[in-house]
Amino acid sequence: MERIVENKNIVVTGGASGIGLSMVDNFLTHGAKIVIIADKNEDFGAEAVESMTSKHGSEKAVFLKCDVTTDLDETFETLISTYRSIDILVNNAGIANEKSIKSIITINLMALMEWSVKFWDYMRQDRGGRGGTIINMASVYGLRTGPFAPFYHATKFGVIGFSKSLGHEYNFGKTGVRVLTLCPGYTFTKLTANIVLRDSETAQDYVREIKSNEWQEPDAVGKGVIEVVKKAESGTVWIIEGGWPPVMAEG
Q1: What's the Cα-to-Cα distance from 84 to each of 23, 31, 54, 96, 178, rounded to whole Å?
Q2: Domain regions of the chain by residue span
Q3: How many angstroms separate the CA atoms of 151 and 31, rounded?
Q4: Class of the 9-248 domain?
Q5: DSSP letters along 55-73, please?
Q6: Which of 5, 37, 209, 218 has its CA 20 to 30 Å from the CA of residue 15?
Q7: Is there a catalytic annotation at residue 141?
């Protein structure tokens, strides 16, 4: 299968800001035919399309209002009827709210799995599809544990396990659909600036702990995803941390 973004139709959930928007920008920079920003924030979506249009030209980035937890079927039908094919799906939507275990699991894990399987079934070559690539966003919090965000850790560990299984070489051999996982490190985004901890008494310790880590701008992830698309084997997990190029996780 082609390991390129040139002339591809790409969907990025949660793509209206932060890491998602940086990926949109880099996909277009490297020749994507169109990138659909699937996000529930209409204000951010409008700003994102305006910014991308100014930089890349008209009708290169479009916004589709979408709640990943409720709008999968409707959004899928709209995408297929409008664009005929989707070549790359990035499941990027997520939250970091430790006070809402149901919401964090539903958005970060359940919705991601549902979207992955829906598009995987559509893309698979053994059922008439053209193949494709699904990129699931986890986190270094899916590889390492700490004491402050157990629910978030759980969802990201889950994303990695699910993606490695769906993307297993056995499944790829049958379907021609790659499933990859990205694990960004600490990145300056609205999400990391507004993490809600379950125990507010630990906030100062949490801030002290995260300040000791090396941070990066969203564009480090946006650039890194291009490299991962070009060279990653299905089922692999990639770390993008500290502004450095992507590194494949062991195991």
Answers
A1: 22, 19, 26, 34, 20
A2: 9-248
A3: 37
A4: alpha beta
A5: HH-TTSEEEEE--TTT-HH
A6: 209
A7: no
Mean pLDDT per 10-residue section of the chain, whose length is 251 residues = 92 98 98 98 98 97 98 98 97 97 98 98 98 98 95 98 98 98 95 87 87 94 98 98 97 74
Q: Are 248 and 49 in contact (CB under 8 A)?
A: no
pTM check: above 0.70: yes
Give Cα separations from 6 to 32, 59, 189, 204, 226 (angstroms).
5, 15, 27, 45, 11
SS3 14: coil
Helix (H, G, I), strand (E, B) or coil at 157: helix
The answer to whether 107 and 37 have CB atoms below 8 angstroms apart is no
Return the C-alpha torsion angle 42, 228, 230, 124, nearest 10.
-70
Do strands 247-248 and 237-240 pair parallel, antiparallel, or not at all (unpaired)? Answer: antiparallel
**CA 38 to the chain's CA centroid:** 11
C-alpha span between 152 and 95 (Å, rounded): 8
What is each CA distance from 216 to 19, 31, 106, 126, in whole angstroms? 11, 25, 27, 40
Is residue 69 within 8 Å of 110, Cβ to Cβ?
A: yes
Phi, psi at residue 217, to the nearest 5°? Answer: -85, 155
Place of tokens 């402050």: 148
Contact 86, 121 (CB under 8 A): no
What backbone torsions phi and psi does residue 138 show, to the nearest 5 degrees?
A: -105, -130
CA 149 to chain centre: 20
Structure tokens that stand for 156 in this block = 């990201």
83, 122, 141, 152: the active-site residue: 152
| Strand order through the sheet with 88-91 | 61-65, 34-39, 9-13, 88-91, 132-137, 177-184, 237-240, 247-248
